[in-house]
Amino acid sequence: MPVTYTGNEVDCCLGRIAKEDGQETAGDEEEGVVDGEVVMERRAGRDGDGMEGMSTRGLHGGGGQGQENKLVQINCDPRQHRSSRMTPAYEASTQFNNWRFSPERLVLVRDALNSAAVAAIKSAFDADEPGSSADVSFLDAQEEHLLVKLYITKIPQLCGHFRFPEEVEATAITYLKRFYLRNTVMDWHPKNVMLTALFLATKTTNNPISLESYTSNIPRTSTSDVLDLEFLVAQSLNFEFAVWHSHRALWGLWLDLQSLSDVTEDQRSRDVYETALKHVRDSRFTDAELIYVPSQIALVALSLASPFLAQKWLDSKSSGVGESCSETLQSVVVAINDLIVHTGHPPDVEAVREVDRRLKLCKNPEKVVGSNAYLVRKAEEERKAEAKRNKKAQDIRRAEEDDDPFGNALNEGQPRQQMELDDDDD
Amino acid sequence: MSRPSNAGGWLKGTTVRKGGTAVTNSHSTRPNTPQVQSTSLTAFSGVKDTSGRTTEYFSMDDQCPVCKSDRYLNPKLRLLVSACYHKMCESCIDRLFTLGPAPCPICQKILRKLAFTPQTFEDLTVEKEVKVRRRIAKDFNKRREDFPDLRSYNDYLEEVEDITFNLINDLDVAETEARIERYRKENSTLIELNVRREEQYVQALKDQEEQDRLEREHRALEARKEEELEREEKEKDRREIIDRLETSTKDAVKVIAKSRAEANKRSSARTAATALAKSSAQLLRSRAAQSTTVPDVPHVPLQDDWYTYEDMYTLRDNYDDIYSEAVREDREGIMRAGGYRVQEAWDRAVRSAVTALFLPPLSGVSQSDITSGAPQSILTST
Amino acid sequence: MDAVERANAERQKRWVKDQKIGEGTYAVVYRGREASTSKKVAIKKIKVGQFKDGLDMSAVREVKYLRELHHQNIIELMDVFSSKTNLNLVLEFLDSDLEIIIKDRTLVFLPADIKSWMAMTFHGLEFCHRNFILHRDLKPNNLLIAFNGQLKLADFGLARDFADPGYKMTCQVITRWYRPPELLFGCRYYGTGVDIWSVGCIFAELMLRTPYLPGESDMDQLKTVFRALGTPTEEDWPGHTKLPDYVPVGQFPRTPLRDLFTAASGDALSLLSRCLTYEPRRRVSAREALHHPYFTSLPYPTHPSKLPKPVSAQSRPLEEVDGNVQLSASGPGVKAAPPNRLKRKLSSPIDGLRPLARKLDFGQAL
Lengths: 426, 382, 366
What we know:
The complex is a heterotrimer.
Chain A (H helix, E strand, L loop, with lengths): L4 H20 L4 H19 L2 H10 L7 H7 L13 E2 L5 H5 L4 H26 L12 H22 L3 H14 L10 H15 L6 H6 L6 H14 L9 H12 L12 H14 L4 H4 L2 H12 L1 H12 L4 H21 L5 H14 L9 H30 L5 H16 L4
Chain B lengths: L3 H4 L27 E5 L14 E5 L20 E3 L5 E3 H8 L4 E2 L6 E2 L5 E2 L5 H16 L10 H19 L4 H14 L1 H60 L4 H37 L17 E2 L17 H5 L4 H5 L3 H13 L12 H6 L10
Antiparallel strand pairs in B: 1-2, 3-4, 3-7, 5-6
Helix pairs in contact in B: 3-4, 6-7
Chain C lengths: L2 H12 E9 L3 E8 L5 E8 L9 H12 L8 E7 L2 E7 L3 E2 H6 L7 H20 L2 E2 L8 E3 L5 E3 L6 E2 L19 H4 L8 H16 L9 H12 L27 H4 L5 H10 L10 H5 L2 H4 L14 H10 L20 H4 L4 H5 L2 H4 L7
Antiparallel strand pairs in C: 1-2, 2-3, 3-5, 4-5, 6-8, 7-10, 8-9
Helix pairs in contact in C: 4-6, 6-9
């Protein structure tokens, strides 16, 4: 291992900060890249192949996206010294770039969402009826999370009913979790969001069924419950539909065990696999997939079923890997293990019922069809749309009346463009 | 014009050719018809046609307004135009201005000898407009792409038109000149840049013409060679027939027919080859415009640098696998016939098992999270 | 405003839509630009809400895959945002496509040009397959050409992941002329071979300058294929008679490819025949193809920047440029077009006069 451990740690930190800066200045790619370059330079300088390191940036076939992020990882990859100019494919994924968090950050995100929502709803209540927010008991972030978790448990049940493949189930659960990293249950109740996430997952995993037959098989659900939310869910997911799953990694791990010469067929009994798969399913109740990589979760699921097999396999993969990487992985394994054991189960239904009861009282009134606040909001939207239509009509009229000899040239280019832009609302 | 010296400024460096070799050949039968005549001297600043030559206007009715000498008396009469757009003959110009700047005999404006130019248009107002426009175009050389939108480009054209109009009609001359000067100062870099662009363009055109010429020559050479070859072949055929007729015992008609057939075959092969040569000539032409400095490089089988963990596992030919039992049995053979390869699914699974296996998790929160606390900021990066 | 809406509004602001440049089956395409840099982009606006099953599958597929694939031979999805109920994909702007180039009779292809396009196609496809994605709609007009000559795979509206064992796929994919025989026979379990067949058809089309297997209907397509390549025997393609929609369509003899592709090199024909092999599993893989001697033998593939390009595509950027000064840096060649096209379209006599002075071209020969 030509790269020293101490250096790795520093670089990992630098890389991450660079990444977060990049995200902070969203839309300003330049800045992110610049940050990335700085990191690269430091690394390259120490490695003694500065020129090569720099030149690869330009040659990179894969294009710009998430380029700064690649730097985060580069030194901790065990094969890095063999393919120093390569970027691991996982780091091109949206899962790596946009849906990977530190545990601390998850807490922060959920708290921030929760407090923002509470503030907004409070003012909506007060606008409707001054002082009315005072005696409302709002949900906190943990309670919100509890409710989401309950609806996660509904997805496997529905998937069993529809006989959807595991891929659909896992994807829908991921979507539901990701949705509530950008929305709160006080705005959008998880029941319909869950149904929508599942329906969307059937499409994104290429197992589509008609909406009609989907909703008719679910009690008290109409097609509009799903249709109304589908776009919002897709938008909240950032239209990033591809998900890497740990059940596939577990399958691959299981297959790859057959490459180990000192593992007998008896040791690879199907029971072990089934148990491991159960742990993978349990992991879906946890935040593991938002923090760790599917292959790591699969490895932990196997180790819960058979520590012996997991260790054997890991040993075979760790040869030639630096001690630092092995140690990192060891601590990751412990952490995931912890998550699955302690939070990898459905929530206590009674506790959730209480949360759901309180939710009825603190829902965002702007999102409750028929409420005053809802009507006010709709009226405001309608007013804006009307203003836009008027402006458009005016533009057209002005363009027609315009007899400036040079105005025609402009008409050709601009107002028409405007008209084309404005057809967004049809 | 309030600044006479400036009027000829744009002509700096050009010389008016003295003496008239111009009209010696023109004994026209219809002396009253204005005629034009081409000179090949590009030193003239008159309006040039596409071949770069100046077409100088002259008429059988020409008369010098100063000395009243006319073409009837002096067939070599050549009238030039002053900066104040008055005509006079070359001998008057010599007489009046050789000793230095002097007032125009017609409008009293101070003129210099070098600032007289040949006349291109019959109507001197056109002459003036053209000159003004030419002068303006030199500085006002912005292009459509120098503007952020169509409106600002139009505004610019409008302004140019305005200035031009003022100069042509001698309106607000001082103020207009000041405008031009201001513009020139403000845009000196861009003006310079556009001049260079124009030069490059002219150069490219020249190169293109040269390329075309070379190619034409090449083709002509090919055609001559071709003819030569054909002639030689015909000669050879003729000799062959005679030889065969001499030596063969076969029927003479058959011998001739056979030789003809062979000759035809050769000739059609040649036609095909010519067609190919022609198309490659055409290709060359289409390629000539492109830069040939970029070399073709050898093919590299895999060019991108995505690492796909392939050194972390070895895929086996076969696995004991519950998920693919049906596929591997495939009693009907339809999965094989359709091209489904379970190995591809295995590859995906095993790769997924080793993908980013040693990736450390993120930890902590960055400063920006704490200060902004805005949850959306974490997701807006692409 | 919700966090989600706010983030979306931020994104939306980054992009400006200009002129409409095309209309597809489920989308309208606009020319646009990045507001801050004026960088040209194409914005594909997909209307949602008009389908009873919600988000259209093509849109879902396209977004899903382009979000993940980053490669110089695959079209870059730069951003996604929504406006009301429309989904907007911001894609890199590409001038032309291979179909336009093939059809442009004024262009002459060198063997090295064809090699270059084939190499870029295989590079893009190999990357899809390496990421376990089938494209399922390869054809010349889905191979777009960038200003610098780079070829890019586009239109992932029919793409999908490789199927897990035992899961069926639809056979109603790939435009007919480029559709492999196993799909014509209704096969529901297939693999990367389907894309390879399409590439083979494109390869042949580049050499012939006309579609190689232009069947008039699905049935006629099989006949066209067999007429060109001979009816497959059980030995050529084991098990094909068991495929769901198998029908005998007549016996045609196998004729050597050489008879039709008279000018092609031996290496080229060898690769072509490996793409158009009946038995899908014996077809060349994208990765094997990239290692085929055709690509390593001389001549080298033409550098993308020198590949033939339609004249219209060369001059078009000038007309379309809007405040993009960089473009004029592309050399004097483009200036050959009138400097001010928009004006020339006008019939108004007043406007007609204004560019007149410019037409005289005073500056030029001074």
